[in-house]
Design brief:
With 279 residues, the chain is mostly beta strands. It has helices at residues 2-7, 100-106, 229-235, and strands at residues 17-21, 38-42, 48-53, 64-73, 79-82, 89-92, 114-119, 140-151, 169-170, 176-181, 193-202, 207-210, 218-221, 243-248, 269-278. It folds into two domains: 2-151, Roll (Chitinase A, domain 3), CATH 3.10.50.40; 169-278, Chitinase A, domain 3 (Roll).
Length: 279
């Protein structure tokens, strides 16, 4: 589930040092090289940004929302994640939604820019990686196009919903969920794009991620493998306008490997979820 894993990370500095690169190659001989012509920017944390098409020159500031299309690749060029046609990624600079290197790299680009990014492992998922998706100590490569930059949304206060006295429903897979409020809108089904607000905690009450704090729901296509299995199944039980609490066992979440420092191995995850839109 790239959407949930990535949002748990911490943002980094926006500063950078610029240099021209005729071949577009990184000066770090031990890392993957960026290929192509353009202006090579290297941030203080080692993120490399090869700007292939300049934007309007106005870079995003902390708190602003960036809309972009992207393709994410491992160092061998294999694709591990990408935005879907007609469904670009949106995130807020400095919000913690995204790997540290993601923030410092995207902060160097303006609206209309097209670029390649190399995010070193220590600014991505480090020595732990992400399950069987991203190996340990892996540099990540991204092709990105910045579609828009806007003032960001405001945080929304949220406290975990009380499920006392509510019926606990259990699916055949072992997913448990409570309906807090029945929705009356369109059903969330495979193939449809849903916008979901969420608040995620571990069983001990530790919060590890929350879209409410960023003030904007995440969007993804159900059935496309963009989220953990517990989300795929849980959200598909709901309609637009529904509010529910999901209790997701480890084997429907991040299993024995966990997810970086945010989610430990064999962790049961509890999510308040609100289906804001289905289309």
């Amino acid at each position: 589930m790239m959407l949930a894993v990535i949002t748990a990370m911490t943002a980094c500095s926006n500063g950078a040092n610029e240099s021209e690169s005729e071949g577009g190659e990184s000066t770090d001989s031990t890392s993957v090289m960026l290929e192509g012509e353009g202006t090579l920017i290297t941030t203080p944390t080692g993120v490399e940004v090869l700007v292939q098409q300049e934007g309007d020159g106005v870079r995003p500031q902390v708190g602003q929302k960036v809309t972009l299309m992207y393709v994410g690749m491992l160092s061998d060029g294999s694709v591990f994640d990408q935005s879907m046609p007609g469904n670009p990624m949106r995130f807020v600079i400095g919000s913690g939604q995204g790997m540290p290197g993601w923030h410092s790299g995207i902060a160097e680009l303006s609206k209309g820019a097209i670029a390649k990014l190399r995010i070193p492992a220590d600014q991505a998922f480090g020595s732990e990686g992400v399950g069987d998706i991203i190996p340990p100590n892996e540099d990540l490569l991204f092709d990105v196009e910045i579609l828009d930059i806007q003032d960001g949304p405001k945080p929304i206060a949220h406290e975990l919903w009380d499920t006392q006295g509510l019926e606990k429903k259990t699916t055949n897979s072992g997913l448990e969920y409570y309906i807090i409020e029945e929705g009356t809108g369109e059903a969330a089904e495979a193939g449809k794009t849903v916008a979901v607000h969420y608040y995620g905690i571990l069983k001990d009450g530790t919060k590890f991620d929350a879209s409410y704090e960023r003030g904007e729901p995440i969007e993804f296509q159900l059935g496309a493998g963009m989220v953990i299995p517990g989300w795929e199944e849980g959200i598909s039980q709901l309609r637009e306008g529904s509010k529910a609490q999901l209790v997701i066992p480890p084997y429907l979440a991040y299993g024995e490997q966990g997810a970086g420092s945010a989610v430990p191995p064999n962790a049961t995850l509890i999510f308040d979820v609100e289906v804001v839109a289905v289309r």
